[in-house]
Amino acid sequence: MALLEARGVVGGYGEADILHGVDLDADAGEIVVIVGPNGAGKSTLMKAVAGLVRVRAGAIMFGAEPIANAPAERMILRGLAYVPQERNVFPSLTVEENLAMGAYARPAETEAGMARVLALFPDLAAKRRVAAGRLSGGQRQMVAIGRALMLEPRLIMLDEPTAGLSPKFCALIFERVQAIARDGIAVLMVEQNARPALAIADRGVVLAMGRNRATAPGPALLADPEIGRLFLGG
Ligand SMILES: Nc1ncnc2c1ncn2[C@@H]1O[C@H](COP(=O)(O)OP(=O)(O)OP(=O)(O)O)[C@@H](O)[C@H]1O
Ligand SMILES: [Mg+2]
Could you tell me the residue ranges of all domains in the chain? Predict the structure, then answer.
């Protein structure tokens, strides 16, 4: 059984379903990349796993435990961390304060978590006392990812971590994502920078109109002419 197994997930906001029976798997140490058109339900799927969107039917198992509709604030204690697409740092707090927030549920682990995160993102070490709002977009994204890593999750979900970043920072984020996965953490990532993200994906998932359209190792999806034409801009 995979670390994360979602089966036939149906759900959305209010009356209208956005997800119409979606399957999703992620194993320890695996990079899973979800791509698909705007409005496909990629962010909604992540929010459903994170307990932020109501799951009306289907099952979500994490570490063999059912988690569908579990309280979002407990997810981090189960080892599931979620970094949303927007507003994922506190701009007026320093880097260090933002990271400490990530250990809020188990404050005794703050120091060890901080040391681990600053080793993963050495750029942040020199900025510890700087307000997150004063950092570059790439550095802010590192703070958001770092905060999610503070309690050593088993799964980290990143919603468009490279949105708006320069190619240099995109490459850096993807390289760090690979380092996180090498530590045995499952990384589930939604990406609009589909080609470079799929290039590093053990598992690529194409989602369209709230349904699975294709699942295969990222490089296999990249080599598929129909996937390229329909979903990757030719
Ligand atoms: N809070 C919300 N309330 C109601 N509808 C929403 C809400 N958030 C998203 N939706 C709708 O759900 C559908 C799927 O949105 P979602 O954000 O999951 O798409 P996405 O695949 O992440 O797209 P994008 O690539 O633009 O980020 C869209 O039709 C969107 O308008
Ligand atoms: Mg989205």
Answer: 1-79+186-234
**42, 190, 193, best to mutate for ligand 1 pocket (most atoms within 8 Å of CB):** 42
Quote the ligand 1 centre to 152 CA distance (angstroms). 29
pLDDT score of 43: 97
How many Cα neighbours within 13 Å face the side chain of 124?
Answer: 27
For ligand 1, atom 7: residue with the closest CA:
13
pLDDT above 70 covers a percentage of the chain that reads 100
pLDDT digits (tens, 9 = 90+) for 95-142: 999 999 999 999 999 999 999 999 999 999 999 999 999 999 999 999
Topology of domain 1-79+186-234, per CATH? Rossmann fold (3.40.50)
Q: Assess contact for 38 and 207: CB atoms under 8 A.
A: no
